[in-house]
Amino acid sequence: SLSEPTTSVRNNDITISVPTDLGVELTSIKEVKLGVDGDYHYVYGIIAQFTYGFDTETGKDAKVGFYLVDNTGSMYVYCGYGKLENAAIGQAVLVNGEIAHFISQAEASQGAEIGYLGAEQLKADNIEIIDSGYTEIPDAGIETKSITELATTNFRDNDLSGTIFRVNATLT
Q1: Whole-prediction pTM value?
Q2: pLDDT of 127-156, one tens digit each?
Q3: If DSSP codes are grouped into helix, strand and coil, which group holds residue 26?
Q4: Stretch 6-23: mean pLDDT, rounded?
Q5: How many Å apart are CA 79 and CA 84, to the nearest integer?
Q6: Rg of the Cα trace of the chain?
Q7: d(CA 161, CA 155)
Q8: What is the pLDDT of residues 83-116, one digit of tens each?
Q9: DSSP 51-92
């Protein structure tokens, strides 16, 4: 657990402690997602899930990024190979980096036709594990939508990349 002074934020039954003395000005995920490419931020949150890629140097699948959640939302954080060996789901981390959009070369021309820049992400320069124990993922950082709401979302006007959704459905 954290030994630094903390501010508790209640989210349903989950409390997240945010250190107040990290020595940097923190930006919420909601605020980061309002920014533009090149904006630099320090973000504190909980690792919710990893993404993997094939590392050609080691010949193995390796963690390359993760979904970060705070009390205001979620977003994808790209780290690259070799930076996440000690990271685990549920750890509280401090990430600093700049906003960027990623789109594969294969999708770039089709994306350009409809004005899609790619998936918004925070391209991490540094990831510091603040609490190596397990912290519950805050409910407030996960959006709840129906399948109908997601299916009728105009993705040209609403960049949902990096957003984690809770979807309830009944299958018949």
Answers
A1: 0.80
A2: 999 988 898 888 888 888 888 888 888 776
A3: coil
A4: 53
A5: 8
A6: 17
A7: 10
A8: 999 999 999 999 999 998 887 778 778 777 777 7
A9: EEEEETTTTEEEEEEEEEEETTEEEEEE--TTS-TT--TT-E
Contacts of 53 (CB under 8 A, 6+ apart): 61, 62, 64, 81
Tokens of 115: 């004005």
Rounded to 5 degrees, what angle do the CA atoms 83, 160, 97 make? 30
Amino acid occupying residue 43: V
Q: 10 Å Cβ neighbour count for 157?
A: 7
Neighbours of 140 (CB within 10 A): 17
Q: Is 109 helix (H, G, I), strand (E, B) or coil?
A: helix
- Number of residues that make up the chain: 172
Look over the chain and give the mean of its residue pLDDT values, rounded to a whole number. Answer: 83
- Cα-based distances in Å from 120 to 1, 21, 169: 31, 28, 27
Q: In terms of Cα–Cα distance, which of 165, 37, 29 is closest to 103?
A: 37
